[in-house]
Amino acid sequence: MEVTLRRFELSDVDAMMAWASDPEVAAFCRWEPYESTEPLLAYLRDTVLPHPWFRAICLTGGEDARPVGAVSLAPTADTCRGELGYVVARAQWGKGVATAAVKGAVAAVFGGEVEGLERVEALVDVDNTASQRVVEKAGFRREGVLRRHYWHKGRVRDLVMYSFISSDHLAEQSRSSRNPATQLQHFSTICVPNRMCSFF
Ligand SMILES: CC(C)(COP(=O)(O)OP(=O)(O)OC[C@H]1O[C@@H](n2cnc3c(N)ncnc32)[C@H](O)[C@@H]1OP(=O)(O)O)[C@@H](O)C(=O)NCCC(=O)NCCS
């Protein structure tokens, strides 16, 4: 199985519903499960397409493959730093898809797709053990726990802070998976607040 990353298209909305409508997928994410495609289509049009780095995770090569998930790097208050988010449809969990996508994303953003980037960080809920495994397998360093860091669906939560910096080791297979078709992004053009898993 080959995991590839590509830009989203409006026609991906039906594939996105597979994970965006799933309460189990949304449990650790900011958004509530989508009940219809219309608001998801609006999100795709207004946020995903203009986003500086937001990619569809696909399981085969080629531009036509249907996405099984998404990975993004959100700008933060400082252009040296971006915040990673990722999500995979439940039918594909436990197959290494997210780990491969995160490795590919790190290789791409440090490989020239995001200008001036020095640090990728991932903020993971202390109870989201699958997500912690993903970034650990992808080579991120666990820096510590941010206690009572944010409100999540009515409860204040602790987050684990992970980082991957530009001098950290990139797995060889990820280096070779860079997609030359993607263009250089000017990461400083959009600045959004630091939001965990803020896909939708
Ligand atoms: C987190 C998520 C992206 C992982 O996707 P995935 O494709 O299944 O990830 P991978 O297969 O690459 O790796 C998952 C790892 O977590 C482990 N895992 C899964 N569920 C687990 C659990 N409940 N407790 C401990 N480990 C768990 C798997 O065994 C695997 O580790 P291993 O390879 O050492 O066995 C997916 O579960 C998801 O989309 N969750 C909802 C959205 C989300 O939480 N996103 C991240 C927010 S920070």
TrEMBL record:
<dbReference type="GO" id="GO:0016747">
    <property type="term" value="F:acyltransferase activity, transferring groups other than amino-acyl groups"/>
</dbReference>
<dbReference type="Pfam" id="PF13302">
    <property type="entry name" value="Acetyltransf_3"/>
</dbReference>
<protein>
    <recommendedName>
        <fullName>N-acetyltransferase domain-containing protein</fullName>
    </recommendedName>
</protein>
<dbReference type="InterPro" id="IPR016181">
    <property type="entry name" value="Acyl_CoA_acyltransferase"/>
</dbReference>
<dbReference type="InterPro" id="IPR000182">
    <property type="entry name" value="GNAT_dom"/>
</dbReference>
<feature type="domain" description="N-acetyltransferase">
    <location>
        <begin position="3"/>
        <end position="166"/>
    </location>
</feature>
